[in-house]
Amino acid sequence: MDHDRLNSDIIAALLCQFQVLISDICDKHEIPPTALIDRFEKVNARFDNLMNVNETGLIIPHEARPLTRMIAREFDTYSLSDTGHSYAT
Fold first, then answer.
1. pTM of the predicted structure, to 2 decimals
2. To the nearest whole number, what is the mean pLDDT of the chain?
């Protein structure tokens, strides 16, 4: 699995559609839905559960849309941490 492309597709969906459909991502990247749901739930928890996460995907509701770039950043492996270092390993 190409994590960069997976993350890129998640970020693009969030920034363009304010949602990520699990079926679209899983079909394209051949990963199990549970892997995405787990990731979505962890990110959602970091934002005080402002998003809707269920078996169909992750949705950013209208009132949380001003946070979209910050939410998308959670899926960016190369984003800088608070210390100024990349999360990439």
1. 0.85
2. 90
